[in-house]
Amino acid sequence: MITIRKLSSMEPSLQLRKAVRICRALELEESGHPGSLMKLRKVYIKDLFALLRENPLAGERLEEFLASSEIEDQSLTYLLADLRYLLMETAGISAGDWDFYGNSGEGSLQRPTMPMQLYLDRIRSPFNVGSIFRTAESFGVSTILAHPFGASPDHPRAQRSAMGCIDHIPWRLCSEQELSGPVFALETGGEDISTFAFPLRATVVIGSEELGVSPQLLKRSDESLGRVTIPTAGLKGSLNVSVACGILLFHWWKAISSRPVPQQAY
Question: How many whole angstroms separate alpha carbon 178 and alpha carbon 237?
Answer without folding.
Answer: 32
